[in-house]
């Protein structure tokens, strides 16, 4: 009995792994034929249910992806034969019903096997269509291309599961109501859509790399999902420099993951990390992707510029070897291209490291006075760091305590409070 339960569990793990790998390709092929992302996902889920019902008894097939595709094809053919969809297609094509029925199966069967890469590109561009809100794009992308369940997405972003479920349902309905074509747009529309795709993948990665809330400093699963999506997109759009720029940024940043936390999961800041623990394979991949972006003329793109900044850190074997003047210059270029208070805050850090904390403090004080980052915990955190370096410990403690009160991440709060407490010791020493 125990052996049977173990085998059953192993089979379910195998099904889960296969689904993560094959679901996007499966849904993409079905969406091209049905022109309905929601229906395509339903058909793919039907195939998954069939696997859950049959594989524990029959065993995992030699080619599980092909098995799922075969089941999904049959169900798609049944839907097209029964429903108004086939009649609509007949009317559009001006073909007699009887003749079309004879050809439906082979035509559909062949079409589902062709142009897998094109189908995946269509799917990612559809999931990230600007008609959807950013939150909906993130949820739908992780569902359709990441293979995550609604519960997994909800846990990753610390959002109630019904909220994520509603976002996904609304997103699919919005795409259907807007009659968004399942196709790769051209020209300016393609660039706008691709920008949306990159933004979504970037947001997913950032949430994994520095969790905005919760008990963990990082969420490695989201980092992996974003990396996988970026690598897929780089294969689908190999001539787009900003795709390679984003992949370069993510690869290099992800290389630090094991060095960013200690054995208890507490954060370790960049300058304190053991760089021997940085993943040199990921760094190599990132530098290669950055070189591709630059070769395609994309060195000045926003993601490529951020990747170039990350590369400065990656190339420095010791923290003191970091080329801070170059990083400051790259942030200045990024601020010209995509001005934002957050970029300016990062530029202030680079300037402080390159030319001294007093110069960085001038920029940070300007941001504070402008009020554009009110409520953003990293502003008082950075200001507190500069004040510590300038020996203004009492002011620094107040800033770090304010940052701790603003962050929603428990690990980060602990770190900020520790740094604030450390400011009290020099003050006490001065008093004695």
UniProtKB/TrEMBL annotation:
| Protein's name in the database | RNA polymerase sigma factor
| Keywords attached to this entry | DNA-binding, Sigma factor, Transcription, Transcription regulation
Q: Which organism is it from?
A: Roseisolibacter agri
Which family is it part of? Answer: Belongs to the sigma-70 factor family. ECF subfamily.
What are the residue boundaries of the RNA polymerase sigma-70 region domain, all occurrences included? 26-82
The yes or no answer to whether the keyword DNA-binding is present is yes
One GO molecular-function annotation for this sequence?
A: DNA binding
Biological process GO terms, please?
DNA-templated transcription initiation
What Pfam families does this protein's entry cite?
A: DUF6596, Sigma70_r2, Sigma70_r4_2
Annotated InterPro entries: DUF6596, RNA_pol_sigma-70_dom, RNA_pol_sigma70_ECF_CS, RNA_pol_sigma70_r2, RNA_pol_sigma70_r4_t2, RNA_pol_sigma_r2, RNA_pol_sigma_r3/r4-like, WH-like_DNA-bd_sf
Stored Gene3D superfamilies: 1.10.1740.10, Winged helix-like DNA-binding domain superfamily/Winged helix DNA-binding domain
Boundaries of every DUF6596 domain copy:
193-293
Protein's UniProt keywords contain Transcription regulation: yes
Every copy of the RNA polymerase sigma factor 70 region 4 type domain together lies at 124-175
């Amino acid at each position: 009995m125990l052996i049977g339960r173990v085998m059953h569990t192993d089979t379910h793990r195998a099904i889960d792994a296969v689904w993560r790998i094959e679901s996007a390709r499966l849904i993409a092929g079905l969406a091209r034929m049905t022109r309905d992302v929601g229906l395509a996902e339903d058909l793919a889920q039907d195939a998954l249910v069939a696997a859950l019902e049959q594989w524990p008894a029959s065993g995992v097939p030699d080619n599980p992806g092909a098995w799922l595709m075969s089941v999904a094809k049959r169900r798609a053919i049944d839907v097209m034969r029964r429903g108004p969809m086939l009649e609509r297609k007949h009317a559009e094509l001006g073909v007699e019903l009887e003749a079309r029925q004879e050809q439906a199966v082979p035509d559909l069967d062949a079409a589902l096997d062709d142009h897998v890469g094109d189908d995946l590109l269509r799917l990612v561009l559809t999931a990230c269509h600007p008609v959807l809100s950013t939150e909906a794009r993130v949820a739908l992308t992780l569902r359709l291309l990441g293979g995550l369940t609604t519960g997994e997405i909800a846990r990753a972003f610390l959002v109630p599961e019904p909220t994520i479920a509603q976002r996904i349902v609304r997103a699919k309905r919005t795409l259907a109501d807007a009659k968004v074509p399942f196709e790769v747009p051209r020209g300016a529309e393609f660039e706008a859509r691709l920008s949306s795709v990159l933004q979504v993948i970037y947001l997913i990665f950032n949430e994994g790399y520095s969790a905005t809330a919760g008990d963990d400093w990082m969420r490695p699963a989201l980092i992996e999902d974003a990396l996988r999506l970026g690598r897929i997109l780089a294969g689908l759009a190999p001539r787009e420099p900003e795709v390679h720029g984003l992949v370069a940024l993510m690869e290099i940043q992800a290389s630090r993951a094991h060095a960013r936390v200690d054995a208890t999961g507490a954060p370790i800041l960049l300058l304190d990390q053991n760089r021997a623990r940085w993943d040199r394979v990921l760094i190599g991949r990132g530098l290669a992707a950055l070189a591709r972006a630059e070769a395609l003329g994309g060195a000045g793109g926003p993601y490529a510029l951020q990747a170039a900044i990350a590369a400065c850190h990656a190339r420095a074997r010791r923290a003191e070897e970091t080329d801070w003047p170059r990083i400051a210059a790259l942030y200045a270029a990024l601020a010209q291209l995509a001005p934002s208070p957050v970029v300016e805050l990062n530029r202030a850090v680079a300037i402080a490291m390159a030319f001294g904390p007093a110069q960085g403090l001038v920029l940070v004080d300007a941001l504070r006075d402008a009020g554009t980052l009110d409520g953003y915990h990293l502003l008082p955190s950075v200001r507190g760091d500069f004040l510590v370096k300038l020996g203004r410990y009492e002011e620094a403690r107040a800033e770090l305590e304010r940052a701790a009160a603003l962050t929603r991440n428990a690990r980060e709060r602990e770190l900020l409070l520790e740094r604030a407490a450390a400011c009290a010791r020099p003050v006490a020493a001065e008093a004695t």
